[in-house]
# Entry
Amino acid sequence: MAVTDEAILKIKNMIIDGHLRPGDRLPPEKELSESLGLSRSSLREAVKALEIIRVLDVRRGDGTFVTSLEPGLLLEAMSFVVDLHEDASVLELFAVRRILEPAAAAMATVRATDADAERLRAMVTAVSAEASLDDLVEHDVAFHHGIAELAGNGYLTSLLDSLSGGTMRARVWRGLTQENVVERTLAEHAAIVGALASGDAELARARAAVHIAGVEDWLRRAARG
# Structure
């Protein structure tokens, strides 16, 4: 395990054990590095990584604080950043989604009624631009399940639901790190619904492909970073 990843895991354990809570200030660098058995340089790298994913808030001249995010979201993000650098399987899951989700969207377009399209549109408009991360992830899962269900193939729906579960932490981390993620997600979902409502299966396929590929591209760049 990389030294930085080890440092992240040790800070994560402090949150699990209750030694650090949302809003708490971290001990001084020298004190924390000694108590965790880490070099100050590896601790510094871990703090930098956790600042990037908004788990820690570094306030110059004031100290480093755990953000106000719920503990569950903090732990999701911290686990994911370590896993992503050690295991590329989440990228493979998105590659499979990039193949299947556009096909599901095209199949759904052929079968969808006006009422189906309106139901999907209502799912999108029900989420505000100020939605919480929890609400966004819940909407994203439900929206993609709705598309898959309309495709009319139970095996495909089950497979996509399974893939969706496997990429949940990626959704959480994207929500923590990417700017304007709520607006971007809703706009792309609305574009898919628009194509579906018009009955244009190939356009729905293309818009779904762009949507999934965009997330995959962000994830690939994040893994390199």
About this structure: Residues 201-224 form the longest helix (24 residues). The mean pLDDT is 86. The chain is about 75% helix and 5% strand.
